[in-house]
Specification:
Keywords: ATP-binding, Molybdenum, Nucleotide-binding, Transport. GO terms for molecular function: ATP binding. This is ABC transporter ATP-binding protein. Pfam families: ABC_tran, TOBE. This protein is of the alpha+beta class. It folds into two domains: 231 residues, P-loop containing nucleotide triphosphate hydrolases (Rossmann fold, 3-Layer(aba) Sandwich); 121 residues, RNA polymerase II/Efflux pump adaptor protein, barrel-sandwich hybrid domain (OB fold (Dihydrolipoamide Acetyltransferase, E2P)), CATH 2.40.50.100. 27% of the residues lie in helices and 37% in strands. The protein contains ten helices and 20 strands. Strands 6-7-8-3-9-10 form a six-stranded mixed β-sheet, sandwiched between helices. Strands 13-12-11-14-20 form a five-stranded antiparallel β-sheet. Helix 3 packs across helix 4, helix 3 runs parallel beside helix 5 and helix 5 runs parallel beside helix 6. The longest helix has 18 residues. The relative contact order is 0.11. The mean pLDDT is 92. The structure holds adenosine-5'-triphosphate. The site of adenosine-5'-triphosphate has 11 residues, from helix 1.
């Protein structure tokens, strides 16, 4: 099978803002039909990276290639921008009708009136805006305005689309409906896309690759499963919701069955780390099971600890439990389980998790 061609390649990019280096990226690529999410804390450089890929940010060094050709002259940048579209958190609609807003990119590209009419009608339909064509864009709700900005971006039928938190501050059902519409069109048309988002579930659901940024650098990239379950360091582990991160030392490794000493207790896991290695044991809260009686000894979970509920806090549909098992462990339980098990602060429980649910990260020497 031939490798898909890269649509965009970025090399040796450095961007300074206010005299400080805010982006330092040796290389980054986006391939044909690929959907990439950029995640990272505030100020990590996600928006600056998008703007750099469109040539809208002054850079100290670096080059961008579009389908293998370096983009250098202003006419080449203009050509690249004509093949791309960008959707921002602020829909930035013109004070005109919904139709005119969706048509604006097509007019800029010199399309004829008849063709514009057909194209706009088709994208208004796709985003359930057909009945609003003549409405003033100033009189739309937040969700409707986002729909118009998406229709406007997709109407130019770009080869690449950039989204910078396009759904922030929308209610969950509206957000869900918009991401589904967007996802469908992207897949139907085979558009390459980069999404900046603070919503990791959105990144997980939509992307083939997740790129984690921090301090202007790419700290990890990979499939959603690789990034979420195998973070490369403590920062990524924390950022992707590995709520339990325990310091330990590998005591034994028999054919990849590892025992790690953590606060005087043993945590079983699997891997290549050898005895003496200083590690972090990272465990996702959804992989910890809580019970009130001693579970069946045949349970497949290799790690089982008696403990006490120290703190209970709400996480929407779940409750987050902090458990003292000799080390602190975080678990999520559904509200239904919480009620059925009659859980409360101070309650004695058993916490268990599988050996394969423990991800080990080697600790760097202090
Ligand atoms: N106009 C500016 N002048 C100077 N520095 C800036 C300017 N805009 C942003 N920065 C800095 O550039 C860095 C990267 O900012 P950027 O907006 O790309 O981050 P981000 O990851 O998109 O953040 P957020 O999640 O908050 O949107 C930050 O340190 C920020 O303070």
């Amino acid at each position: 099978m031939t490798k898909p061609q890269n649509v965009l390649d970025l090399k040796e990019l450095r961007v300074d803002r206010g005299g400080v280096t805010v982006l330092d990226i040796p290389s980054f690529s986006l391939s044909e039909n690929e959907f990439v999410s950029l995640i990272g804390p505030n100020g990590a450089g996600k928006s600056t990276l998008l703007l750099s890929l469109m040539g809208l940010m002054k850079r100290q060094s670096g080059s961008v290639c579009y389908r293998g050709s370096t983009v250098a002259s202003s006419s080449q940048w203009l050509e690249l921008r004509r093949r791309t579209a960008m959707v921002l958190q602020d829909p930035l609609l013109f004070d005109s009708t919904v139709f005119d807003n969706v048509a604006s990119g097509l007019k800029l590209r010199g399309m004829g009136r008849g063709e514009i009419k057909k194209r706009v009608a088709s994208y208004l339909e796709r985003f359930n805006l057909g009945h609003m064509a003549e409405r003033s864009a100033r009189k739309l709700s937040g969700g409707e305005a986002r729909r118009v900005s998406l229709a406007r971006a997709f109407a130019v039928e770009p080869e690449v689309i950039f989204f910078d938190e396009p759904f922030a501050n929308l209610d969950p059902p509206t957000r869900q409906a918009l991401t589904e519409d967007m996802d469908r069109i992207i897949r139907d048309r085979g558009i390459a896309a980069i999404l900046v988002t603070h919503d990791q579930s959105e990144a997980l659901r939509m992307s083939q690759r997740i790129v984690v940024m921090n301090g202007g650098r790419i700290v990890q990239q990979g499939t959603p499963a690789a990034v979420m379950n195998h973070p490369v360091n403590e920062f990524v582990a924390n950022f992707v919701g590995m709520e339990t991160i325990l310091e330990g030392e590998v005591k034994s490794n028999h054919e990849q069955q590892i025992a790690v000493q953590v606060a005087g207790r043993e945590v079983d896991t699997v891997g290549d780390e050898q005895p003496g290695a200083q590690v972090y044991c990272c465990i996702r809260p959804e992989n910890v099971t809580v019970s009130v009686s001693h579970p069946n000894p045949k349970t497949s979970a290799r790690n089982l600890y008696p403990g006490r509920v120290i703190e209970v806090s709400s996480m929407g549909p779940f409750l987050k439990l902090r458990l003292d098992c000799g080390f602190m462990l975080t678990a999520y339980v559904t509200r239904e389980s919480f009620a059925t098990l009659e859980l409360c602060e101070g309650k004695e429980v058993y916490a268990s998790f599988k050996a394969t649910s423990v991800h080990l990260i080697r600790r760097r020497a202090a």
